[in-house]
Write a structure and sequence with these properties.
Number of strands: 7
Radius of gyration: 19 Å
Structural class: alpha/beta
Largest sheet: 5 strands, mixed
Distance between the termini: 38 Å
Number of helices: 9
């Protein structure tokens, strides 16, 4: 029931303590990416307006259009973005997520509410704008171990090798490959494993 958005480290520390205290669940760590809401636009459009962050966007938003999924404009993330950055768009539209990315790429809208690890960001060459004032709370992918295995040192040691092993850029690439229809889930998983191994 919090209304603030604490720093990622604080969120994870409080979550770790709460999971352990209330259910004996062990939080091993983060995988390195999150799947949060974000604002994105085509790289070309962002470069033409010299926009890198949501603060930069705020100076131009009155002349731009935004599209979001059917939940976004009713969510607290949107309210926080408007309040913290003072965003005021010329128009806003609601779309199914798969159409939003294509609409941005085609220039039908200027900004969209993207999901940070979505492969469509790669496919459509979109730029995710930096949330430099931390309006959107973190949504890290995390590794949890059940109470039955929480004290299994061997298991947590193995899982520990995955902590921070998958940056969001790599997850986007994996998701883009999975959505292409040209690869199987197993082949994408094997590709991702190869990439993770090279980072170790």
């Amino acid at each position: 029931h919090r209304t603030d958005a604490p720093p990622r480290e604080k969120v994870l520390a409080e979550l770790r303590n709460w999971l352990s205290a209330t259910g004996g669940v062990r939080l091993v760590g983060t995988l390195g990416f999150e799947n949060a809401y974000a604002l994105a636009m085509t790289r070309a459009k962002a470069q033409s307006l010299n926009i890198h962050s949501i603060s930069d966007l705020a100076a131009h938003s009155a002349g731009l259009t935004i599209a979001g999924d059917y939940e976004f404009f009713a969510r607290p993330e949107w309210e926080a973005l408007r309040k913290i950055y003072g965003l005021q768009f010329k128009a806003q539209r609601q779309m199914q997520p798969e159409f939003m990315y294509r609409a941005a790429a085609a220039g039908d809208v200027d900004v969209i509410s993207a999901y940070t690890s979505d492969g469509q960001i790669v496919t459509n060459d979109l730029l995710v704008l930096d949330d430099n004032r931390h309006a959107i709370p973190p949504y890290d992918a995390i590794l949890l171990v059940s109470p039955r295995r929480a004290n299994d040192a061997r298991l947590t040691s193995v899982l520990g090798q995955l902590v921070d092993a998958i940056p969001v850029e790599l997850m986007r690439q994996a998701n883009a490959r999975a959505a292409s229809g040209k690869e199987t889930p197993d082949s994408v998983a094997a590709w991702l494993e190869t990439k993770i191994s090279k980072r170790r």
